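QUALITY CONTROL LOG
STEP: pairwise intake check
CHECKER ROLE: data steward
CRITERIA: each record must contain a sequence immediately followed by its structure tokens, with no blank fields

ENTRY 1 OF 2
RESULT FIELD BELOW
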Amino acid sequence: MKPIVSTSVSEGQYSRERFVEQIEQAHRSRHCLKLHAGGSTVFLDFVNELWIDPDRILPGLLQPDLHGGLLMIEDVPAQTIRDQLAVHGRPLAEFWWELVYNCFDANSAARFNLFYGCRRDDVVHLSRWPNFSRVTVNPAALRMAALFTARPTSVFLASKILEVPMLEVERFYAASVASGFVERVNRQAQAEPQAPRVHRQQGLIKSLMNHLSRAYSARSA
């Protein structure tokens, strides 16, 4: 099957943004892809939600300053990679983490935040931790994971509490959303309004007022 793109990195034609767009397009179409670079191969199965990157080349492909080599992206039938994925396949959530975390920088932050609906005032609860032995993280990632798991916290406040640059917290948050690890606590409250609860003290006051009203009516009769 013909490659859907063949990109020469050495000639300066490599575009990380274009690469990400092609990945997202394949995901929407539920295709399977084979990425070739430097003698290594990455398989992506968007049907069964699995992937393989045995040589861990994806983080390098997502850097904006690549030099030398050839990148090819090939659309392949699912059955041609089924056996490999059945034995060695990893959850696709790890791929989405790598994709967003390694592409997220000052230039792309607005795009990713818009695409995944991320805001600094979001109150974040981390329902699952990324597999730190399998994905790219920075030294502050463990502290961010611990905070967002122990106590739902806004992105803005997490940056202040942990003394971590805002861009790094936004990066962690966007990758967590892309991987399906996040619950937005304040969004849930807005999306599912509940009837106001009557405080116990309010109920007692109301009962007392009713009792006094009845007593006054009986006297006046």
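ENTRY 2 OF 2
RESULT FIELD BELOW
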Amino acid sequence: MAVATAKRELVAAKGAEVEREELAVEELQAALLERLEAAYEEAKASWRPEVAAPTNWWDIMAVGPFSAPFDLGFPKPNPIVRVGQPVVIFSVLFLNPTPPPAPSPMQIIGGALLPYRITYHTNNVISMNPDPSLSGTVSGNLAPAPFILNAITLTPNTPGLYEVHLRAQILTALSTTMVPFAGYASRVDSIHASIFGPSGLVIRFEQPVRFDVYA
């Protein structure tokens, strides 16, 4: 009986820990969304009339990786973790709410609730081998909102330097890719107004997400 009770208490403790981690990720996601919205509003206030230019309908960026325990507010990404320590990467689909004229891309493709698919591919760049256990797919439907976030949690079990590439596709109702509605994410480690322009995201340096895992 004592052994059974101890096992139940251990399972309950692990369940409570998982719930706390999930809640922390939800709070971090809410903080990230708040910062993205504030940065975009700040960027809009600084724009000046410009010569008409093509509008980027959508884009994708990756923010992270983050590892627990998370600080209050919005912490800095932490690229150094232990074996078995989960890391969280956020994919951010940006639907441009600026009309070229109206309706805006956000209203057109977001209002249509089109399906999207995000695939993440993880490689150990020390061994130069892909890690299928840290790769996968996130699927969902767009919404008439400028930012659509997904939390991707990875738990590495082998030491090494890892590199994560995120690819996104916006699909039609027939699950075929809309051309040119496919792309890959650039890592962003600081959310500020300068990453947004009147025509869409302004990403100056394109790089994948990297994190180092030690034993």
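INTAKE CHECK: passed for both entries
DESCRIPTIVE NOTE, ENTRY 2: The helical segments are 2-46, 105-111.
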